[in-house]
Amino acid sequence: MTRPTVGGALRLLEHGPVLCPIRRVTGLPCPTCGMTRSVLALVRGDLVASVAAHPAGPILAVGLPLIRLSPRARAWARARWEQPAVRATIAGAWIAFAAARAVRSAKRVVT
């Protein structure tokens, strides 16, 4: 009997089945589709593949641990997040990004 390996698990995540319920039902990616593949590509050192999988992957992979581990960065992020304009900007950018990905994917499906 073979034992599962970390490398095997990573390959399954990168090339395995689609797990996103929105994408499985609609065939269109949700705003976070590709995030896992993006972070895994970054861990392998492939920045181009990471950005291609999801442009926010490298930003989140570096930014979230920094905010979590650094009290100064956490205070800065918390102060910014409490501003309604910042929340509205992030929400608007997220919605625009999701719409752009959906349109791009729909074009690929049609052609």
Q: Which features characterize this protein?
A:
111 residues; mainly alpha; 7 helices; 0% strand
Short description:
This protein is mainly α and 111 residues long. Helix content is 75%, strand content 0%. α3 (35-43) crosses α5 and α5 (57-69) crosses α6 (71-81).
Describe this structure in words.
It contains seven helices and no strands. The N and C termini lie far apart (45 Å). The chain is globular and about 45 Å long. The chain has 111 residues and is mostly helical.
Compute the CA-based radius of gyration.
17 Å
Please give the count of helices. Answer: 7
Category by helix and strand content? mainly alpha
**Distance between the ends:** 45 Å
Helix fraction bin: over 70%
Mean pLDDT equals 78
Largest sheet: none
Q: What is the H-and-E element order? A: HHHHHHH
Approximate shape: globular
Low-confidence stretches: none
What is the percentage of strand-forming residues? under 5%
